[in-house]
Amino acid sequence: MPPPAPSAAPPSAAATAPPSPGRIDRDFVIKNRLIERYIGGRLPVRGAQDLERFCREHPDLIDDIHLSENINSALRLLDASGRASPWEPTPAKWWQQLWVLIASAALASVLACVALVLSSKLDGRDHVITGLKQQVAQQPLNPATSKRTINVTPSRVAPSRRSMATIGGSSVEMADLRIDMSWTPIDQFRVTVDRVDQGRVAIFHNVKRDSSGVLHLELNSSALGPGVYQFTIEGLDRWGNPIPQAWATISVLH
């Protein structure tokens, strides 16, 4: 038997690569589909350069393979699919559009103005607070220009927000509060003064009523801030234990 024919050797990589510019011709371009490989980006740099040089020297090849018609068909497919043409600019993102930039600049300007206004108001408020703190720290007491006697009939049932008397006003006065306690057998009392909805102001211990059964409390109207004050009157038994007796409410004006 004759010996088997040797198998054909596989084509080497050099056989599939484009030849040198001197060996490239029309049949080689068509046979190896160099145009399609060029368009698909599958040609090496040297092969792409050789093909470009050959097409520059033989422009009739473009007409023979109907490249223009094929490109037009591809563009129609792109248009039908809603894709932009390769030479059309990429649409800008929404945050890159002009109206967004203008709106952002306008908003930044408005916020800057608001910040300036708030800063000015805060500076003014800080100035007022500083003045009030200084005034509270000093607590000036003005001299009384007049004296007035005020008769007060306290409530025996429970505290009330209804004011029974008003002191102060346009001028500073020394108010002599005469609180009627003649109806109770107790002679000695403890009087607690609270500013309504704020806090305790003073406590007067061991206050005795006069022979007519009246408790006397004299107050400079500038010593108390403007507001409503609740007086709680408690009787002290012989052991000094407080027993609620009456309540009175007065208002202070400045």
Provide a concise account of the structure shown.
This protein is of the alpha/beta class. The chain has seven helices and eight strands. A hairpin with a 5-residue loop joins β7 and β8 (242-253).
Please characterize this protein's 3D structure.
This protein has 254 residues and is of the alpha/beta class. It has seven helices and eight strands; from the N terminus they run H-H-H-H-H-H-H-E-E-E-E-E-E-E-E. It has a five-stranded mixed beta sheet with strand order 2-8-7-4-5, with no helix packed on it. A hairpin with a 5-residue loop joins strand 7 and strand 8 (242-253). It starts with 12 loop residues before the first helix and ends with a strand.
- Average pLDDT: 80
Helix/strand class: alpha/beta
* Proportion of helical residues: 25-40%
- Termini gap: 137 Å
Tell me the number of strands.
Answer: 8
Which sequence of SSEs, written as H and E, runs from N to C? HHHHHHHEEEEEEEE
What fraction of residues sit in β-strands? Answer: 25-35%
Question: Layout of SSEs?
Answer:
Blueprint: H1 13-16, H2 26-31, H3 34-39, H4 45-57, H5 60-64, H6 67-80, H7 98-138, E1 146-152, E2 165-168, E3 173-180, E4 188-195, E5 199-208, E6 214-220, E7 227-236, E8 242-253
Parallel strand pairs: 1-3, 2-8
Antiparallel strand pairs: 3-6, 4-5, 4-7, 7-8
